[in-house]
Amino acid sequence: MTEELDMIFDEFKSSNEKTLVHLEAELSKVRAGKASPGMLNGVMVEYYGSMTPLQQVANVNTVDARTIVVQPWEKPLLNDIAKGILNANLGLNPQSNGEQLIISVPPLTEERRRDLVKRAKAECEHAKVGVRNNRKDAMDMIKDMKSEGLSEDLAKGAEENVQQITNSFIKRIDDVLDVKEKDIMTVGGSISTKGSKSTS
Description:
The protein is α+β, with helices and mostly antiparallel strands. It is about 55% helix and about 15% strand. It has helices at about 1-30, 80-85, 110-145, 150-185, 190-195, and strands spanning about 45, 50-55, 60-65, 65-70, 95, 100-105. A hairpin with a 4-residue loop joins strand 5 and strand 6. It is elongated. The termini are far apart. Residues about 190-200 have low confidence and may be disordered.
């Protein structure tokens, strides 16, 4: 019986880790002003009739803190890529020079920062819902084991363990949000502090 309980805990933790990985991926799309190729993650381009991730049809690079350059592998794709970027609603406006797309990343306004924080909070709420759904699944499995003869004490201990695991993952989500919120609300990012930090 305890082996089965351990399996439930492991499965529960593993599901929550996946939820956190997904959250990190979603938050990486919520960018705080500094140009980065990751800003275009999730952009889909129509390529020979099927929707294809941008990274599979073009090179994406940054030339400085404010400019992203997209170099298509095939020149005729320029317009489709521009369309894909506009359709992704990232607030970016790609300009074509006939060879590649140049995207100037605008500095964030206070209002835009607040919007991004809202979006980050919403993603973290989704993640918490995911953790709570995973908790319900784990609790249901413990309930099933109870009906199959698991003792009251073991069941109670298992339920407490599931709750502790839930709390630790919810805290990790809150910590991730704190970091992201600071990142978004810090004007100019952390560029100014980089030079002054001593390397230990």
